[in-house]
Amino acid sequence: MRVRSLLLATVLILLTTTGFLTVRHQLVPTANALPPANGVVLADSGYANLRPCAFHDDERCKPTLQPANGHQLIVWCAVTPFSGENSRLYGLGDYPLPGWFMVTDPMSSTTGFIHITLVHLLRAVPWCADQEGEVARTAPPVTSTPPYEGVPDPKAPEMINSHLVLPLSRSAGGGSWHAVKLRNYQSETNVVVRCHTDDTVVRTLSVHTDANGSASAEQGCYFVGDGGHWAETGIVQANPDTSGPAAAPTVTLAKGAVRERAFWYRVTVAGYPPNTDLSVLCHDTASPAGFRQFKLRTGADGRATAENGCFSGDGPDHWVTVGGVTSNHVAWGAASATGAPATTASRATDPPPPTMGSLSIGWSSAHPSWITITTRGLGSGTYDYTCHFGSGGDRTFKVTVSADPQTFDNGNTCYDQIPGDTVWLTIGSARSNTLTVAGPPPPPPPAQPTGRSETVGGVTHTWTNYTNAGGTAGPVIPAHQTVLVSCKTTGFRVANGNTWWYRIASPGWDNRFYASSDAFYNNGQTSGSLVGTPWVDPAVPDC
To answer: Where is this region: Disordered (predicted)?
Structure first.
């Protein structure tokens, strides 16, 4: 089990001349083990500002974190305003209840204050002890967020006891895939899951919860090696389940029904990802490199069976391969019209195939998408030739051979225009080489993003709609990460009055998401406090 060491800020200082309240010792326990979360962010803007001090929302106390709706917090106590001018809380008028909660973000170990209107309590908390050694308040514990005008009724009970589990899915490429399964989340919403190895995010994915608040992704987190692996949603975190090895996929072959003078291959696969298309290649003794390829789609249980993907009467050995997995080998010969074994084995029709000769095919330069055919050692005569396609739809035609060798390049042989498809030719038991249809040229590499480098002072959320800090949530910018911003624009006014927003150009955001410039240093600084830093960097061009 991965244990994350969480260090708690423990300082509370009252500056009576300025109205500041900051974190002081003896308010937050110093033990390494944290209590469970007892509060959930629930704000009209979609996020809350966590500040190092209370009763100020301006440049004197800039936010260090902006946890999003649904983010769970450890709420320690409630703080009330003092008498005089500071009794009027920011944006709350003269409402007599306490105005701030003292909280710790369990994911980043950051401790500070958040407006009481932006946090829904799951359990009661006491009042914070008075400053400068006075006795604790005797008022009853705060039990719920008061119904301030304009604040919606809390929906946080849907998020109580949210769960994230990472069951083992399958082994692949020296590592293992772990499914992502969520429950007890807010219904019909996108949840971003970040997969970590130690402190590095190695994969990010988004899953959508159903009406019950559940979601799952079979191909969730991919981890290589032992230890140091975990995932989180910003609400909860989990370690991967390694209780047993992932079941290896299996491929089983059996002799199927009679088809002319041959038998169908009955192919069964199991242990594959659900609802996935697999490519099955059929082999026999006459064509050990494979003679037919077809697609097989797994069901929800990762299993599938094909009864008529390919057939053969050329024995004695038959098998199939699916990727790097080879089936068992099954022996049979040709079948008579009644299904009994026949003395001649073939996948072709009468006349009997020649016992000598070879075929080769190539792409025609005179007739694009058509093949050229070159025969050797067949002898003069008219033959049936069959064009086989990996995508299916084999066709048989006649060709008259009058020379040896002889090449046919007349735009009337076989053609294939499906990118990635395979084609080969047979005349009796003679089989040609296999050609693969070229795919479209690869797209040019994406243009490298341009912009000005800016650094955030804390974990910063991004959004598609900067006018209301909403729309679709984008990837979170980790604390103290430097990103490229392409331009600035005005939009949603954050708590301290700052209306500037940056459009994030770095890969992953791709100029599709915006973040409030309030979360950035905006002066070239890359660490330290945001207090006293500019609201926006004037060197960033307007959008």
So the answer is: 436-456
Does the structure show a pLDDT above 80 at 128? Answer: no
Sort residue 12 into left (φ over 0), alpha (ψ -120 to 50) or beta. beta
Gap between the Cα atoms of 495 and 216, Å rounded: 35
Residue 488 parent element (H or E): strand 482-490
Render pLDDT for 354-369 as a digit per residue (tens, 0 to 9): 344 789 999 999 998 8
DSSP β-bridge partners for residue 455: 482
Exposure b/e, 495-533, CB count within 10 A at least 16 = b:
bbebbbbbbbbbeebebebbbbbbbbbbeebeeeebeeb
Task: Report d(CA 512, CA 69) in Å as an integer.
Answer: 21
| Coil, helix or strand at residue 156 | helix
Residue 543: pLDDT over 80: yes
Characterise 285 by phi-psi region: left (phi > 0), alpha (psi -120 to 50), beta (else): alpha
Helices (H), 336-425: none
Name every residue whose Cβ is closer than 8 Å to that of residue 465 and which is 6 or more positions away in sequence. 471, 472, 514
Q: Tell me phi and psi for residue 84, to 5 degrees.
A: 85, -155
Q: Give the three-class secondary structure for 526.
A: coil
Kindly give, in sequence order, each residue whose CB lies less than 8 Å from that of residue 264, ignoring residues fewer than 6 positions away. Answer: 256, 257, 258, 307, 308, 309, 310, 311
Q: How confident is the model at residue 54 (pLDDT cuts 50, 70, 90)?
A: low
pLDDT digits (tens, 9 = 90+) for 215-234: 888 888 888 777 678 888 76
- Return phi, psi of residue 225, to 5°: 90, 180
**Residues sharing a CB contact under 8 Å with residue 495, sequence separation 6 or more, in sequence order:** 49, 57, 63, 90, 115
| Neighbouring-strand partners of residue 490 | 500
Whole-model pTM: value is 0.27
